[in-house]
Design goal:
By secondary structure, the protein is an alpha+beta fold. It is built from five helices and four strands; from the N terminus they run αβαββαααβ. It starts with 9 loop residues before the first helix and ends in a 6-residue tail after the last strand.
């Protein structure tokens, strides 16, 4: 079975926050949805009827947006992925998000916000696999 990546590991989190990256950070999110959302880990959030992973992710974004905006973060891009122009021939991702935060510290504050975390189960239910890649601009010389 293929390795799935849904949540950050302690090692990855520590490496990111001790990397010394400063200033604005943009998070590249690559998302693969489940055909059917799986609320096994968060039954209190489960809707009465079965929904798709994409529908569960929409619930996650609706819940998340106020916390994101309150933190100073913003969605720069949200769209469908259509397969690679250069790369593997199989379609790997369903959606791509670019989310900008004023700093890594702001991202950490957002990601650990109690209100935000109350809805994280929609994300977990929605995703078959994901990648989260922090991006920063090159220093101008």
């Amino acid at each position: 079975m293929k390795q799935r990546y849904i949540d950050v590991t302690q090692e990855q989190g520590k490496a990111f926050f001790t990397s010394g990256v400063e200033g604005p950070i943009t998070m590249l999110n690559l998302l693969k949805f489940r055909e059917e959302a799986d609320y096994t880990a968060h039954p209190a959030l489960a809707p009465e009827a079965t929904i798709s992973g994409q529908q569960a992710y929409k619930k996650y974004m609706k819940h998340t947006t106020p916390y994101l905006q309150e933190s100073g973060g913003e969605v720069l891009f949200s769209g469908a992925a259509h397969g690679y122009l250069i790369g593997p021939t199989e379609k790997e991702w369903d959606m791509v998000l670019l989310v900008r935060y004023p700093s890594p510290q702001v991202f950490l504050s957002f990601a650990s916000n109690k209100g935000y975390l109350e809805g994280i189960g929609h994300r977990t239910a929605a995703l078959e696999d994901s990648r989260l890649l922090p991006l920063s601009t090159f220093e101008q010389t």
